[in-house]
Amino acid sequence: MIEISHVNKWYSPTFQVLTDCTTNVTKGEVVVVCGPSGSGKSTLIKCVNALEPFQSGDILVDGTKVNDPKTNLPKLRSRVGMVFQHFELFPHLKIIDNLCLAQEKVLGRGHDKAQAKGMQLLERVGLKEQAQKFPAQLSGGQQQRVAIARALAMDPIVMLFDEPTSALDPEMVSEVLDVMVDLAREGMTMMVVTHEMGFARKVANRVIFMDRGEIVEDAAKDDFFGKPRSDRAQKFLSKILSH
Amino acid sequence: MFGNLDFDVIRRALPYLFYEGMTFTLTLTFLAALGGLIFGTALALMRLSGLKILGRIAGIYVDFMRSLPLVLVIFWFYFLVPYIGQWVTGASRPISVGAFASSLITFIMFEAAYFSEIMRAGIQSISRGQPAAASALGLTYAQTMRYVVLPQAFRNMLPVLITQTIVLFQDTSLVYVLSITDFLGAASKVAQRDGRLVEMYLFAAVVYFTISCIASYGVRRLQARIAIIR
């Protein structure tokens, strides 16, 4: 579904953020990407739907080459759902209109159909009552669930999560993770940048560990948590699992 | 001091002042603000487009307009446009452009420079995550601007835009250099005709002051309301 091969990215000639990253996500798989901050994991996931350009290497999503100038990026992105750290709901639109905008303008769905789909997804994330409110009137956890629903409204073939719980108050983390766990169990293909190792343990198939722009470890979940091969991954795990 | 002033001259001139003068002033203000906002937004988008050449053109235009006194632009434009029209169309004589059309175009072009800076600040006030989220949903650049960025930029900047329009409302009085009958022009004509300069100019000042004050008060109320919504 997602094939990343030998991706290199420089912010400036002397500052390389991604170094020869190669991995893949197959259909129905849940892959968790973790690593210390500044390791390039968010940058890598943003390369997948071309929100960040990269200088060399290839990324294919469902057979379409992301870094090909001829690729119709809006069309490709409409099939790749993305959830951001800071939710990024559109503050000037009501919740339901946040869910309808891209359905109508990108997929060309009629207003009624988009509304129905939107309400159905809001119900699924438990926020049907909030449909007529504005984003600022919702809590962080609620906003992030709306953001997930907004991405799902496009019927994506894969979902990307960029630290979806990092900006949340601790008591709101689980409501978002619950939605994500349900999604994973339904067979959604997911690539998730997160520090939530509990989530990784529960639903991930594979865990990728990144450090300083490199993929240091790419292993099945049980291998990764059992005994990581690299020192850096061991250190990282001992730090975030120690308390 | 006010013993020999005749304020009845104002009452008699009211229909003329408002039906003719104020109607013109408000029409010019409204159309110039609207045109200036549209043209100004286009300039702001050019400056932020990332295409160096477009940004350069818009930047030079804005700096140029902001470096000239408005009254000079009005004056020059009025006398130049007929010749530019002649040159563009290849006509044998200068093309006559009415004073209204000329002044409207001048104000639109002049105000666009100011509105573009306001809209640029408004667009830059939107966090980069917003266009990223819109792109991630598959919206094109134009759709992202139209449905996500510009509505927010416009709303954030509405108080400043209206304040600028109040300034514009006062500036429209400069069309007197073209002998146009705007509100001040009308007052001035009555003043000259009846020899009642003090009364008429005093009255004109009171009217401009009152309208601008009420509008400014409205802006403050609006600001408070927007602050609650956000």
Which properties best describe this structure?
heterodimer; A: alpha/beta; 6-stranded mixed beta sheet; 25% strand; B: mainly alpha; 8 helices
Report on this model:
The complex is a heterodimer of chains A (243) and B (230). Chain A has 9 helices and 10 strands. By secondary structure, chain A is α/β, with parallel strands linked by helices. The longest helix of chain A is centred in the C-terminal third of the chain and has 16 residues, at 170-185. The mean pLDDT of chain A is 92. With 230 residues, chain B is mainly alpha-helical. Classes of the chains: A alpha/beta (243), B mainly alpha (230). The interface between A and B is medium-sized, with 29 and 20 residues.
The percent range for strand residues of chain B is: under 5%
- Cα radius of gyration of chain B in angstroms: 21 Å
Counting DSSP E segments of at least 2 residues, the number of strands of chain B comes to: 0
Terminal Cα separation of chain A, in Å? 36 Å
Q: What is the distance, rounded to the nearest whole angstrom, between the alpha carbons of the first and last residues of chain B? A: 53 Å
Order of helices and strands of chain A: EEEHEEHEHHHEHEHEEHH
